[in-house]
Amino acid sequence: MTTVADAMATAVERLEASGCDTPRLDAEVLLAAATGAGRAALIADPGRELDDAQADRFAGWIARRTQREPVAYILGRKAFRHLELHVDRRVLIPRPETEHLVEAALALPRGARVVDVGTGSGAVALALKDERPDLRVAATDSSADATHLAQENARRLDLDVEVLEGDLLEPVHGPIDAVVSNPPYVGEAESAALAPEIVDHEPPQALFAGRRGLDTFRRLISQVSARGVPWVALEVGEGQAGEVAQRLAAAGYARIDIIEDLAGVRRVVVARR
Description:
By secondary structure, the chain is of the alpha/beta class. The protein has 2 domains: about 1-65, Helicase, Ruva Protein, domain 3 (Orthogonal Bundle), CATH 1.10.8; about 90-270, Rossmann fold. The chain has helices at about 5-20, 25-35, 40-45, 50-65, 70-75, 100-105, 125-130, 145-155, 195-200, 215-225, 240-250; strands at about 1-5, 50, 75-80, 85, 115, 135-140, 160-165, 180, 230-235, 255-260, 265-270. Helix 1 (about 5-20) packs across helix 2, helix 1 runs parallel beside helix 4 (about 50-65) and helix 6 crosses helix 7. The longest helix has 15 residues, at about 5-20. It is elongated. About 40% of the residues are buried.
């Protein structure tokens, strides 16, 4: 029989050798999931024995992690705000910095109609509906695979979000009070600097937006301006906030605020007419 201590020691060594940034944390999370026990319980009982099924499951997951597959994809889930979302390689893994996008939208007027553009797993739209049930929330994505997964998450969480397949705002009919979006914003030239977890596993269409990463912003700002959307919040990449704010100002948005993430990066541009 393999003990927790033995399994952990082997896993951490393999993950360190493969270049993972957080080998012990990854091993603890995967072992907890493989055994159905909490991390704290495993740490407190290193002599606990794994049965064959648990040991095999853990070994298989560690093998995948050594190929730099993200833990969220291995387990098929990711926590975001108060929700646990199902995720897989059809969608980008929700990031903590995207929570600032949700927080900005929580101050919207009661009953506002909000559209989450490029919803992926549905993270932003579903978190908004969960925390502000009065909002009328729709979500769009150009990927049929992403749309299907967002719909699955909405049904499983029993949250009334309309998920539509299509480019940016094109599938949305009628007046829109607010748009939130975490669009693709990585420049194509930056791909070589990305971690293998990102460039080798996450969907490129959710990452890249032209040479400088600004192509989707240009198109989306044009659409929100043409539709007369009064309130817009966009997540941006490092160094992009200034240019995105300028484009919004040129499109008629007179009041612009920029929210920094916990690392001090100017991460969310909020614009009002």
